[in-house]
Automatic annotation (TrEMBL):
This is Pentatricopeptide repeat protein. GO terms for biological process: mRNA modification. The keyword Repeat applies. Keywords: Repeat. It comes from the Eukaryota. PPR repeats lie at residues 171-205, 310-344. GO terms for molecular function: RNA binding. The keyword Lyase does not apply. One of its GO terms (cellular component) is cytoplasm. InterPro entries: E_motif, PPR_At4g14850-like_plant, PPR_rpt, TPR-like_helical_dom_sf.
Length: 492
């Protein structure tokens, strides 16, 4: 068969194929024709298997069958591994294997995918050394990948900035990588400053800063940036700067965190006016926003309109009902979810919502039931949040002996949530001795938190331990521990 004719046939068959058996038949045909080791055809099969079929295991079998894969095949296989978080280690192992064999040599196109797979600064440092050794340290695409890789390592944003400052050529992609790194690390000041220095900005750079704000608790700042982005997009020269799906999801998350229902509704209208397809991601963001803002009727309406209800959607509704004290509705939603079948299986977040619902409804036995269900039926390891909900439930019911028994049986050290929940229950029921014990634990965990010191001082005053009140006051003053003043939020 003529090469051109074979190429056309191969392309046509792959476009129509959607099953691994089709690929195997085509592979057999190529072997029969003597092309089992032809790099061009192996590359086509490997890419189809890893991208269209998402079968990395069989893609690797194709790769392993080749006696001398070239750099393009290595890049294709490493790229496939790098595209899935759970196979990053496979990408690094394959890269190391290529280096050991000394053939083929790495090029500038393989390094970004290797760097994407690095886990921690040590791995990035090793690849960086290899990049410098191989002479690709001045290639912009490699430098940008280094900035991104370093900035993804917690606490290593300084190394990312060093690479960024030494770059031979900076563009909107490299600036965005650095802005994203600062935002991811919670360094909003530097992120905003560098964003302001960008010679040009695109939607991705706006998203990097907005998502960084919302993911690090700077929701109000994220909302201000979103509003600014919308206004900028109205200018003729910036028509291409318009919020996309990622922007809207981040903005909706910020609205939910701050209870900004009116802006959330405006964003919902913006979605429809601008022709966005309300897929499961947008639907989940809308449900979460409406639920956190207390508009449960609207949250339920969006939820019901979503044809592809995944676990995230169910969890949002369960937690929304629980958050606003509608325990019966939260439990009914969970029971409805369980009737869906094996397609939706509850996770740790589901049970946090259920336990919160039981807490607000005073349903102690029901809370015990769901806690046991989580462990026994679904084999989920209880987290500190689950124990916190259970202690809060028992404390509100005045069942302190049971609460202490749960604390003693925990698989991890009790944290501030645990002791704070116990303390709140003790104050309601006047259990001053246990309240003193819980308050002391809080001070031990964070001795510089003036709020905890104030709690303990209040307990001492209630039981008449005035010497302890004075001693504690002196200690807090020496440590410069101050109580953080309370504040409220009103939507502008």
């Amino acid at each position: 068969m003529e090469p051109n004719h074979l190429n056309e046939n191969l392309k046509s068959i792959l476009q129509k194929s959607n099953h691994l058996n089709h690929l195997k038949q085509l592979q057999s045909l190529l072997t029969t024709l003597g092309h089992s080791q032809t790099h061009f055809y192996a590359f086509k099969l490997l890419r189809f298997c890893s991208i269209s079929l998402s079968n990395l295991h069989y893609a690797r079998l194709i790769f392993n069958h080749l006696t001398s894969p070239n750099i393009y095949l290595y890049t294709a296989m490493i790229t496939a591994y790098a595209s899935h978080p759970h196979t990053h280690s496979n990408a690094i192992d394959l890269y190391r294997n290529m280096l050991r064999q000394s053939s083929p040599k790495p090029d500038q196109f393989i390094y970004p995918h290797v760097l994407k797979s690095c886990m921690g600064p040590r791995g990035t440092d090793l690849v960086h050394a290899q990049i410098l050794k191989s002479g690709f340290g001045q290639y912009p695409v490699v430098e940008t990948a280094l900035v991104d890789s370093y900035s993804r390592s917690l606490g290593n944003v300084g190394s990312a900035r060093k690479v960024f400052d030494e770059m031979s050529e900076r563009n909107v992609v490299s600036f965005t990588a650095m802005v994203s790194g600062y935002a991811r690390a919670g360094d909003l000041e530097n992120a905003v400053r560098l964003f302001g220095e960008m010679p040009e900005r695109d939607v991705l750079s706006w998203n990097a800063l907005i998502s960084g704000c919302t993911q690090n608790g700077f929701s109000y700042e994220g909302i201000k940036l979103f509003r600014k982005m919308v206004v900028v997009g109205l200018e003729e020269r910036y028509r291409c700067i318009k919020p996309d799906k990622v922007t809207l999801i981040c903005a909706l998350s910020a609205c939910g965190d701050k209870g900004m229902l009116q802006l959330g509704k405006w964003i919902h209208g913006y979605v429809y006016k601008n022709g966005f397809v309300v897929d499961s991601l947008l639907a989940n963001a809308l449900v979460d926003m409406y639920g956190k803002c207390g508009s449960l009727k609207q949250a339920r309406k969006v939820f019901e309109m979503n044809p592809d209800k995944g676990l995230t959607s169910w969890n949002s509704m369960i937690n929304s009902f629980a958050l606003h004290g509608q325990s019966d509705c939260a439990i009914a939603m969970f029971e409805e979810m369980m009737k869906v079948g094996s397609d939706v299986r509850p996770d740790e977040i589901t049970f946090v919502g259920l336990l919160n619902a039981c807490t607000h409804g005073g349903l102690v036995e029901k809370g015990y039931y769901y806690f046991e269900m989580m462990v026994q039926e679904f084999k989920l390891e209880p987290q500190i949040s689950h124990y916190g909900c259970l202690i809060d439930l028992l404390g509100r019911a005045g069942r302190f002996d049971e609460a202490m028994e749960v604390i003693r049986g925990m698989s991890m050290e009790p944290d501030e949530i645990i002791w704070g929940s116990l303390l709140n229950g003790c104050k309601v029921y006047g259990r001053t001795e246990l309240a003193e014990f819980a308050a002391k634990k809080l001070v031990e965990i964070d001795p510089h938190n003036g709020s905890y010191g104030a709690m303990l001082a209040k307990v001492y005053r209630e039981i008449g331990k005035w010497d302890e009140v004075r001693n504690l006051g002196r200690t807090l003053k020496e440590q410069k521990s101050y109580k953080i003043p309370g504040c409220s939020w009103v939507e502008p």
